[in-house]
Amino acid sequence: MNLFIQLLRSLFISMLAMLAVILIVLFPRQVNVTVTETQLLTDYPFSFQQYAHQIQAFFSELFLNGSLGVNRYQFPVIEDVLLVMGNSMIVIATALVASFVLGVLKGIIDYKLDQTRFRVFGSFGTWLMQSFPDFLLILLLQWMFIRYFPNIRIFSAEPWYAFMIPSFFVMIYPMLYIARITQVSISNQEGMLYLLVAKSKGLPRWLLFYKHVFTNCMGTILTHLPSLMLYILSNLLIVEYFLNYPGAANRLFIAIDYSVNFGTGGNYEATTIIGIAFCFCLLVLFVQWISIIARRRYEVK
Amino acid sequence: MEGRFVKNIPLILGAGMIGVLIILMLFGPYLPFVDEQLEPVKHRWSEDKRLQLPPYPPSVHNLLGSDKNGVDLFSKIVMGTKETLLIVLGITTLRYMIAVPLGLLARRQKGLGHVIVQGWNQIFSFIPTILAAVLLLSIPPIQNAEHRLLIAIVVLAVIEVGRVAQVTAERAHQVGKEEYIEAGTALGLSSRRMARSYYLPALAPEVIVGFCIDLGKVMLLIGQLGILQIFLQHVWVEVHFFTPKYLNTSLNWSALLAEHRREVLSSKFGFIFYPAAFIAFSILAFNLLGEGLRRRMKQKYHTTG
After folding, report:
1. CA A130, A134, A140, A144 torsion: positive or negative?
2. ipTM at complex level
3. Residues of A in contact with B18 (CB under 8 A)
4. Which of A94, A103, A185, B289 makes an SS bond possible with B14, Cβ 3.0 to 4.6 Å?
5. Domain named ABC transmembrane type-1: which ranges (chain B) (predicted)?
């Protein structure tokens, strides 16, 4: 398929998906609470008119005024979204680069280790670590920090290293994922005929590995880049929530305003959710495009 | 045959761990050190005649200690096993029942089925799964539904249908390039017959392995929901003057996690650790089983073909 059409198609599907997200988010969810003399009653009046009105109001605000309105603090939504996205971008970018680089390295090491008697630390170790739930790991580390290293400020966004702790937590799982992909695709190259030819021509082992095996694997690994991004985005919430980091995923959860008293509280911020989802959407689309372009480059070789 | 089977350590370990879970689920309530009624023990006299108040530390009476009402933690976890596993199994089964046929529909990588699968997958990739779950589960009609648990199971299943369908479709597309499939097409078999007798048997091993791994993923998702204090089953009651609250009515592990989440901040780790550890144990069990089955099927494939 033409590269341009491929890129355009992924853009089109993203736009459809974004529209669906908007429709889900704008679904009316305000509950009327009335207090009588003796008790508290709630009532949920749903009407399609209200739904249509909300959608119309959203789009007219967006297209006529070019804004998303104000949030619960009477602060422009777009500025707020950009602020929290900025905080999260450092974490996302650090985690993306670090998990990719370290993951590929770990994959290569796993592949080498699998041929020695330290097999347990190789791909099996990676796999085992991948099976542990992220929140258990975070809970353990959090407890350890609180109990034994109280002077490391894990809950504060102020110190310069504030973005490193969430990046580290977010990175672990995607890194293991890439390590596994790398290790599997390297072992799939084993015994390929072109490798035998190159070997018979007297190419040294390391050159053989980096010039042929690794370049071929890169294509496969790069196709998994969008999944890597998704893993990072979905880890982000639990990590930001646990560490109280002022990032986008945490803000998204606050905007949903889940309350244990009324379900959805009075401060549900639909436009903030849409704004942050839009930024995530752009990120995913961007990574998808990189992946499509890169795949093409490596396939031609 | 025997020798090969022994080598498959993940399969044996996984099956063993699942076995432990199933025994806990079926016979757990009848074990001697499990208090089936979950009765709170408000106070207790220690051996040297001193008054003890809950939470009790781990001892002979309470294997893992008790919560602040004096209810035995181990019993709580054991009594919740059945519910937790059934919820996880329900969500995953429903997800695969929708996703696999949908994936087969989209196997040609074009047409309506393809757009549906792609779109579905993309929608829920812009909002992290856990946030999509929160967003959907808190819609008032679902929040206050009479059969909330059932609806919650459907919602959690549907969120990731797109991903599973996408994987199935991609795999089916690859299988479609094989010669015997082309032979079937050349015979002029109906599309339905092709899907059932040609594609499905070829995809079955991967679907089964994927299913096991998804069991682990669902378990993780439910655990995360628990951390965010979102229950799959709750009642809305007045807990104080004019202060209603959603109270958890279930014993599943994620609900236990939710109850004790805040206690980490005061360095009381025990209560939250046990449900989390049990969740980790079962995720590990599901993953080991999946990996073991994958190896087993790979071996089978290599010996017969």
Report:
1. positive
2. 0.75
3. none
4. B289
5. 81-290
